[in-house]
């Protein structure tokens, strides 16, 4: 194979002297019809059938993409990967098939870019067969060929990465003469077809899957074996940004621990900082695993969007200011979390958010809304067997308090169990003690640490059919409390 690069000035670099790109100059390749399509893909690989040069013109499969600076997003040049058709033919010929068969590779618009019968390369495929692959065809079926009207057995595999389809044709006599080996041959043929796509996609997936898994494991160790920053180079811009914010959070936590060991602070502030350190990594750990499985499902673009959203979540949680933020900022944090959940569940759930006018600038503690919604998913909706999921968030003023409620149409709890659960949260024996919750006890203790014993969390049956969680915040005394805790928060809060 050949890797051929053009820099931004048009200078060429090649990994192979004997095999060359057919177009020697950058201006020549820019005039090719499919080059404009490569421009539109903006960094993603475009795969086409075309010529290469080795002592003369030879058929090849070519992948091309734009290269960009990950920091400035400016163009660095172009990359081309060239696979001679003869190499692919040799690979398929070495699979050890004992059943005689014909192999074709069809691109996403119905052209034959490779065939074990060279006369078919570059021709249009059977449109009826092409349409069948676009539907719900079985992986192994019968088909009458267009050329000689023979009844053949067809096995195929389609690559989600390149959009190409690998097809193998078998005569029924050859297959049924050795039926015990039929499935082995079909699997080997499909394996040879997807091997090319796997080799090409591996370079891109390892730059996301491995570091995200490492970061998830690092988050899990925060509560068990201490905290350590990561100092490794990564190729993905999103992963670099995510690791940078993770390291910022680790540094912030280390500074908090050091300051607590050096200063004589009140028992209330020490308990509050400990709660924040325990609480924050939990939802980050869950979100990282969601990104990991999205990558495993081969949805890299969605994973990138989710990674950037999680990076914003990290930045919000380690912002170097007081623990009090505006309600509008915390609602923005909730919307980032809902974006991650939407990536996981799609349109299975709906959320309504009703905020009384004028409350967006009211001061609340960080991460006060997102844990309640996450708890609705985990303990209410995910245990519901069927039906659409509903979540309703209502925020309004009642007397000298602000009431924030989150309710769902999940499985709910009997009234007796609901009262017992509320008592356990108030007595610091909440869900997190069972290893499966979001930490309502921690949130209840944070509210009381900031605003006094008259505020916290209550549990009620929801008219939607599930559970309703209501938390109360002070209205008139909040500004004085902000001033009193704000100066300490800048030095001692995480």
Low-confidence stretches: 264-275, 430-438, 477-494
Average pLDDT, all residues: 77
Percent of residues in helices comes to 40-55%
* Major sheet: arrangement of strands: 2-1-6-5-4-3
Question: Can you offer a commentary on this structure?
Answer:
The model is unreliable at 264-275, 430-438 and 477-494 (pLDDT under 50). Helix 9 (300-317) packs antiparallel against helix 10. Strand 5 and strand 6 form a beta hairpin. This protein has 494 residues and is of the alpha+beta class. The strands form 4 sheets. A 6-stranded antiparallel beta sheet has the order 2-1-6-5-4-3. The radius of gyration is 30 Å and the shape is elongated. The protein contains 14 helices and 18 strands. The protein has helices at residues 26-30, 35-41, 85-93, 127-134, 172-176, 182-221, 237-262, 267-296, 300-317, 327-345, 370-381, 415-426, 440-451, 478-492; strands spanning 2-7, 12-14, 20-21, 46-53, 57-68, 75-84, 101-106, 112-115, 140-144, 151-158, 165-170, 324-326, 349-355, 363-365, 389-398, 401-408, 457-461, 467-474.
Short structural description:
Helices cover 44% and strands 23% of the residues. The chain is of the alpha+beta class and 494 residues long. The model is unreliable at 264-275, 430-438 and 477-494 (pLDDT under 50).
């Amino acid at each position: 194979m050949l890797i051929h690069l053009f820099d931004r000035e048009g200078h060429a670099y090649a990994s192979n002297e004997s095999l060359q790109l057919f177009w020697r100059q950058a201006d020549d390749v820019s005039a090719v019809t499919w080059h404009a399509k490569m421009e539109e893909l903006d960094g993603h690989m475009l795969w086409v059938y075309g010529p290469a040069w080795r002592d003369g013109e030879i058929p090849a499969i070519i992948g091309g993409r734009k290269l960009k600076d990950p920091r400035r997003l400016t163009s660095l040049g172009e990359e081309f990967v060239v696979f001679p058709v003869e190499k692919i033919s040799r690979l398929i010929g070495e699979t050890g098939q004992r059943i005689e068969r014909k192999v074709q590779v069809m691109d996403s618009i119905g052209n034959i870019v490779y065939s074990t019968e060279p006369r078919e390369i570059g021709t249009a495929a059977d449109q009826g067969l092409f349409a069948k692959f676009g539907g719900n065809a079985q992986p192994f079926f019968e088909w009458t060929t267009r050329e000689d009207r023979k009844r053949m057995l067809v096995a195929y595999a389609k690559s989600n990465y390149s959009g190409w389809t690998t097809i193998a044709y078998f005569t029924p006599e050859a297959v049924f003469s050795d039926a015990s080996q039929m499935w082995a041959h079909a699997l080997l043929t499909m394996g040879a077809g997807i091997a090319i796509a796997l080799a090409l996609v591996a370079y891109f997936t390892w730059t996301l899957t491995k570091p995200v898994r490492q970061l998830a494991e690092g988050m899990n160790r925060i509560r068990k074996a201490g905290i350590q920053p990561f100092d490794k180079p990564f190729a993905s811009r999103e992963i670099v940004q995510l690791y940078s914010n993770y390291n910022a959070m680790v540094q912030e936590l280390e500074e908090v621990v050091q300051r607590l060991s050096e200063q004589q602070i009140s028992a209330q502030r020490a308990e509050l900082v400990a709660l924040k350190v325990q609480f924050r990594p939990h939802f980050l750990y869950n979100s990282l695993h969601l990104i990991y499985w999205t990558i495993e499902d081969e949805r890299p673009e969605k994973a990138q969007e989710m990674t950037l959203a999680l990076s914003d979540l990290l930045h919000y949680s380690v912002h170097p200011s007081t623990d009090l933020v505006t309600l509008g900022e915390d609602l923005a944090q909730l919307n980032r979390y809902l974006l991650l959940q939407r990536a996981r569940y799609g349109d299975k759930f709906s959320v309504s958010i009703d905020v009384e006018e004028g409350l967006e600038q009211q001061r609340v503690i960080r991460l006060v809304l997102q844990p309640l919604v996450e708890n609705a998913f985990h303990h209410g909706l995910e245990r519901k067997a069927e039906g659409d999921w509903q979540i309703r968030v209502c925020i309004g003023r009642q007397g000298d308090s602000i009431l924030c409620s989150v309710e769902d149409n999940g499985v709910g709890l009997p009234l007796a169990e609901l009262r017992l659960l509320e008592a356990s949260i108030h007595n610091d024996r909440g869900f997190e003690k069972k290893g499966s919750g979001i930490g309502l006890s921690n949130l209840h203790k944070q509210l009381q640490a900031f605003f006094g014993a008259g505020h916290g969390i209550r549990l009620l049956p929801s008219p939607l059919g599930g559970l309703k969680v209501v938390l109360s915040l002070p209205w008139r005394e909040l500004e004085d409390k902000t001033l009193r805790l704000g100066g300490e928060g800048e030095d001692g809060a995480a």
